[in-house]
Write a structure and sequence with these properties.
CATH class of the largest domain: Alpha Beta
Number of strands: 15
Number of helices: 9
Largest sheet: 7 strands, mixed
Structural class: alpha/beta
CATH topology of the largest domain: Peroxisomal Thiolase, Chain A, domain 1
Helix content: 25-40%
Strand content: 15-25%
CATH architecture of the largest domain: 3-Layer(aba) Sandwich
Length: about 350
Amino acid sequence: MKIGKQTIKLENSPCIFATSSIVGPKEMQGPLAQYFDANIKDVFFDEKTFEKAESKMLESCINNLLVKAGITQQDVDVIFSGDLLNQCISSCFAIRSFDVPFLGLYGACSTFCEGLILSSLLIESKAVKQVVASASSHFCSAERQFRMPLEHGNQKSPTAQATVTASGAALVTDKSVADNGIHITHVTPGKIIDLGVKDMSNMGAAMAPAAFSTISNHLTDTGRTIDYYDYIITGDLGIHGSDMLNELFKNEGIDISQKHKDCGVLIYDEENQDVNSGGSGCGCIASVFSSFWFNELKAKNVNRILLIATGALMSPISSSQGESIPGIAHAVAIEREV
């Protein structure tokens, strides 16, 4: 049922029954290492190219999800997945090994929450029972496509973010099939917000206004305040983008600094790892939610979170033609039964 201008209330509250995560070597050097299910020892993952390594990483992540959930691929009705590469090749080549209907997504770094929204809506409609929402990214493949080949050795600006090498996947179920008490209760698809930012090395500035818009509209639509949630979790704003989001709310007389956490900030050690403004990429929020935050929900350390994945909807072609970077943010309210 739609409420307000942007938000959909899910009367049947689909369940996030299980999650899976796999990360690269740099991510295993960060503070969340103990929470990830698996890791690859080098960026090639025994493959010949970075792109093949990313695809294998996603395939492994989904297979592990099925094992953790105690099901087979025949039990899955649909797989949603997306990545940063042209034609979503990481997802397409990973999912070809599964005999499951596939719907590919592109929302840049917002893809994982886009997948959660579509998964929950399909289940809410009673059309399906079990859906996988997944996403991946790889530092080396993203650098090659969006910036410069690694061999170039170009220097990063302080506002630049490191694309996270990781995959994350979640099994969303109808409560009649499997229910652990962790439910998606509301979803707020985002609007494209474009304030004219053109700096590819400052995606946080392009995405923060979109996050502000979606969070604000979600709260207005639901009649909730920031205090309703234990945490407001963004995906890929990084250090500078997070500061901007806090400032935007501060200008409205709202302090979210104690509630707000960003996965791109959490996944790396700012002091000891050379990541400039933190992490980004489709696999960033996918892996951090599917490991740390889902663990916090299961452990009953948190009860209510608003998960917001942000994306910078650019391409090398649009940037070379002088286009600005449109931002998007999708929100998913996840609540544990108490």
